[in-house]
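User: Please fill in residues for this 107-position structure.
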C-alpha cells in the first residue's frame, strides 16, 4: 500500500533474485503495477515522459538481501527510505514501461 494524494492505494511489486557484482544475491524490483496510475501512464507514454535515469547509488552494498522473502519482505520499506541508494533496488533499463517513474520518491 502507498499513500497517493491522501488515499491508501494498492501497488503490486514483482521481484526477482539477481546476482550482484560481488557474487552475492539480492532481490530487485522488476515490475510495478498501480492501476490507479493507468490514465497518467497512458498520457505520459503518448508524450514520451517515461524516459528517466535512476540516480547512481552512494553505497553499492545496500539492497534487499536474499533472506527478505523468509521475512515476508518486512524490510521492503527501506526501498522508499533509502533515497541515496534507490537504484540498488530496481532493475536497470533505458525506458520504464510501468508505474515505477510515478512512484519513486523524489531524490
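Assistant: Residues filled in for all 107 positions:
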Amino acid at each position: 500500500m502507498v499513500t497517493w494524494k491522501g488515499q491508501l492505494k494498492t501497488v503490486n511489486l514483482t521481484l526477482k533474485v539477481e546476482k550482484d557484482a560481488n557474487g552475492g544475491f539480492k532481490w530487485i524490483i522488476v515490475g510495478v503495477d498501480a492501476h490507479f496510475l493507468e490514465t497518467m501512464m497512458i498520457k505520459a507514454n503518448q508524450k514520451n515522459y517515461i524516459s528517466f535515469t535512476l540516480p547512481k547509488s552512494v553505497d553499492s552494498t545496500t539492497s534487499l538481501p536474499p533472506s527478505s522473502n523468509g521475512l515476508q519482505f518486512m524490510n521492503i520499506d527501506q526501498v522508499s527510505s533509502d533515497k541515496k541508494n534507490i537504484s540498488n533496488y530496481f532493475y536497470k533499463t533505458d525506458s520504464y514501461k510501468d508505474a515505477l517513474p510515478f512512484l519513486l520518491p523524489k531524490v
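For context: The CA atoms of residues 30 and 91 lie 5 Å apart.
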